[in-house]
């Protein structure tokens, strides 16, 4: 009896072994591809001209957050954050040190009961920062699961869990100036705790890089952030749009100002700067300003920054005046008719005799001459002009006064429908110039 039951057990286990072998063979065949690129849709708030994305956080929360290209950390309004998978990061912990840099000695202790996101004991602390109001507030650091779509660049693959996405706890008051639907900030800055750095270490991505493709107004579909890099595919563009990217070195500004930095060892700015060597309008150099404004001095002033928190490019007064003068000259050569200015713009034209073509209004082309290339960052009508009413188009750059910290802040309007790639390992910025030239737009990147 005993021997018969033991042999049937053997038989059973033999059977299971075969089934297991079969399962492992078939799962070998259908092994899911490794996630390569994570994508976050980009939406645009028409009222504030801010770009934002939706994060799928924890157990209950879908949260809209403003995309801050130079943001050191991500933060969420913890007063409105409720998730059972939220965990606080302990002070002095390795994670705390890695997140805030320095010795990780910054702590916050909340004794209120019950504990909730934003009020926990012995918690690693950092300053959540709002670049619109230049306000910041110290709060606890927390982590939670983030669900995000991953793709091989061409076809939809899968949703992945980023298990311990780290962010700061902001409070409701810190949200002022941010687009209505949003409850925090997604920081993409050049830091150890930015979105891209967190994803590349959690998923062992090949490279720590990300790309931005900002949608223009009135586009039905959104643009995208691609964390992990290319390839980039667009409807109507054959092949990988990585091929369109012109590379220029990322410039590191040694001083982070006005952004506050908690990091005690590295005071360099988390923002992305590039070396613009000069400006041309329809091929003619804009020369009537002191070009030392184009480089960053040892106090961190000057230079050219790329920003998603500024909408119309802001120029130092001297550069602004020189650009407007040259643009108006070239416009006159094109028989464009200048009309009264409409604030905040200084050069406006009747739209009557301006033709439209694939890259927008056919106006003089503005070139930013960048380091390391013969090819400039080319700004066509769709990115240079703003339609202020039915009959008037204005040059969409604004005067930043004669004492700005940064001489050129390249803003969202000038970046729309341009593919921009930020490679934190090779320390390079890639730009495509207008995708419209290739019959593509940022809203047509997701084909699934
Ligand atoms: C958080 O969510 C849980 C479960 O959904 C609910 O029971 C609790 O009341 C919520 N807490 C707050 C502060 O909203
Ligand atoms: C340009 O600006 C720099 C720094 O302010 C100054 O040292 C230099 O003399 C200026 N050059 C000219 C030609 O004005
Ligand atoms: C579109 O207009 C630009 C001027 O902004 C001009 O250089 C370009 O040749 C035009 N393209 C076509 C296809 O007409």
Automatic annotation (TrEMBL):
Residues 1-21 form the signal peptide. Keywords: Secreted, Signal. One of its GO terms (biological process) is proteolysis. Residues 51-432 form the Peptidase A1 domain. It comes from the Eukaryota. GO terms for cellular component: extracellular region. One of its GO terms (molecular function) is aspartic-type endopeptidase activity. Belongs to the peptidase A1 family. PANTHER family: ASPARTYL PROTEASE-RELATED, BASIC 7S GLOBULIN-LIKE. The keyword Signal applies. It comes from Dipteronia sinensis. It is found in: Secreted, Extracellular space. This is Peptidase A1 domain-containing protein.
């Amino acid at each position: 009896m005993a021997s018969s039951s033991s042999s049937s057990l053997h038989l059973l286990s033999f059977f299971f072994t075969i089934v297991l072998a079969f399962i492992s063979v078939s799962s070998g065949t259908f092994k899911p591809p490794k996630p390569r690129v994570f994508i976050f849709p980009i939406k645009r708030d028409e009222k504030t001209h801010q770009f934002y994305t939706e994060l799928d956080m924890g157990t209950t929360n879908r949260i809209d957050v403003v995309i801050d290209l130079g943001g050191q950390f991500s933060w969420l309004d913890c007063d409105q954050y409720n998730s059972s998978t939220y965990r606080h990061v302990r002070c002095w912990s390795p994670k705390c040190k890695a997140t805030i840099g320095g010795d990780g000695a910054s702590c916050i202790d909340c004794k209120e009961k019950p504990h909730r996101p934003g009020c926990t004991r012995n918690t690693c602390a950092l300053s959540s920062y709002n670049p619109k109001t230049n306000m910041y507030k110290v709060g606890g650091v927390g982590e939670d699961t983030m669900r995000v779509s991953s793709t091989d660049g061409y076809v939809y693959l899968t949703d992945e869990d980023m298990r311990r996405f780290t962010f700061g706890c902001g409070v409701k008051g810190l949200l002022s100036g941010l687009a209505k639907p949003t409850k925090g900030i997604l920081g993409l800055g050049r830091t150890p705790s930015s979105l891209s750095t967190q994803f590349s270490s959690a998923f062992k991505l090949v490279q720590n890089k990300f790309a931005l493709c900002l949608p223009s107004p009135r586009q039905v579909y959104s643009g995208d952030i691609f964390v992990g890099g290319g390839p980039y595919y667009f409807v109507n563009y054959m092949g990988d749009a990585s091929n369109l990217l012109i590379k220029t070195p990322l410039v590191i500004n040694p001083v982070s100002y006005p952004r506050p930095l908690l990091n005690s060892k590295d005071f360099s700015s988390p923002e992305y700067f590039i070396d613009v060597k000069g400006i041309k309008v329809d091929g003619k150099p804009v020369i009537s300003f002191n070009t030392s404004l184009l480089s960053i001095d040892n106090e961190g002033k000057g230079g050219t920054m790329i920003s998603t928190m500024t909408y119309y490019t802001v120029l130092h007064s001297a550069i602004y005046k020189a650009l407007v003068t040259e643009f108006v000259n070239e416009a006159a050569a094109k028989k464009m008719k200048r009309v009264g200015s409409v604030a905040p713009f200084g050069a406006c034209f009747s739209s009557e005799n301006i033709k439209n073509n694939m890259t927008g209004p056919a106006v003089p082309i503005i070139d930013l001459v960048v380091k390391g290339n013969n090819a400039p960052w080319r700004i066509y009508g769709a990115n240079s002009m703003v339609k202020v009413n039915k009959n008037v188009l204005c040059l969409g750059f604004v005067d930043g006064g004669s004492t700005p910290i940064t001489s050129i802040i390249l803003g969202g309007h000038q970046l729309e429908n341009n593919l921009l790639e930020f490679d934190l390992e090779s320390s390079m910025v890639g730009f495509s110039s207008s995708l419209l030239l290739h019959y593509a737009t940022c809203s047509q990147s997701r084909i699934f």
